[in-house]
Write a structure and sequence with these properties.
This protein is of the alpha+beta class. The protein folds into two domains: about 5-80, Glutaredoxin; about 90-190, Glutathione S-transferase Yfyf (Class Pi), Chain A, domain 2 (Up-down Bundle), CATH 1.20.1050.10. The protein contains eight helices and four strands; from the N terminus they run βαβαββαααααα. The protein has helices spanning about 15-25, 45, 65-75, 90-115, 130-140, 155-170, 175-185, 190-205, and strands at about 5-10, 30, 55-60, 60-65. It has a four-stranded mixed sheet with strand order 2-1-3-4, covered by helices on one side. Helix 1 (about 15-25) links the parallel strand 1 (about 5-10) and strand 2 (about 30). Helix 1 (about 15-25) packs parallel to helix 3 (about 65-75), helix 1 (about 15-25) packs across helix 8 and helix 5 (about 130-140) packs across helix 7. It is globular, with a radius of gyration of 17 Å. The protein binds glutathione. Glutathione binds next to loops.
Length: about 210
């Protein structure tokens, strides 16, 4: 019996949080939702996340949604795992910056680029230029094993997932030497490998 339950679908962004849970090392349970059956839109799940989207995490009587928020929450709620950066640390600003950068700045640009820069009705560009995203990201990870300080944190799970998604899954984010050098050791982490194996195993059951 565990008090952590992840609502997940395969494949989906729920994977980011599965990886985070594996890094955490706490027992957790997975409730799989089948998108083909629209299970994410059923009333019982809408009570968990009215957006009808995954992931969502239940921790005891608390519910949290948004993959980056879930990773941030878990890192703070389980400090023994040393995956957060304390609020009084001089690195806290970098930590928050990179936790938000992937989902908020890079992912819309990656998606917009994948969709062929669809025209919007507004007369300003709603998303950052891909060149700016690539230059910023590559510069941030250049020569670094981890995005913040000298150890792995939740920011690596979130930012690494954005890089993998844009660069390897969608193939829209260019494979710069800096991004590849940062990402490949992340991909090899045992916790990520366990999450991949878990998704492969559970994906068959779906
Ligand atoms: N910003 C949210 C996005 C969640 C989201 O859109 N998830 C997709 C899967 S990647 C989903 O649940 N889609 C449901 C659907 O297509 O009906 C997060 O990062 O958690």
């Amino acid at each position: 019996m565990t008090d952590l339950t992840l609502y997940h679908a395969i494949p989906s962004r729920g994977f980011v949080t599965r990886w985070m849970l594996e890094e955490l090392g706490e027992p957790y349970e997975i409730k799989l939702l089948n998108f083909d059956k629209d299970e994410q839109k059923r009333q019982d799940y809408l009570a968990v996340n009215p957006m009808g989207r995954v992931p969502a995490l239940r921790h005891g009587d608390k519910i949290i949604t948004e993959s980056a928020a879930i990773c941030t929450y878990l890192a703070d709620a389980f400090p023994k795992a040393n995956l957060s950066v304390p609020i009084d640390s001089p690195l806290r600003a970098d930590y928050l910056r990179w936790l938000f950068f992937g989902p908020v700045s890079a992912e819309p640009t990656i998606l917009w680029s994948m969709l062929g820069h669809v025209k919007t009705e507004v007369d300003y560009r709603p998303f950052a230029d891909m060149d700016d995203v690539v230059r910023t990201l590559s510069g941030a990870v250049a020569g670094r094993s981890f995005i913040v300080g000298h150890r792995f944190t939740a920011a690596d799970v979130v930012l690494g997932s954005t890089i993998w998604w844009g660069m390897r899954l969608l193939g829209v984010l260019p494979e710069t030497p800096e991004l590849v050098a940062y990402w490949e050791p992340m991909e090899a982490r045992p916790a990520r490998q366990r999450a991949v194996a878990g998704d492969e195993r559970d994906g068959i059951k779906q």
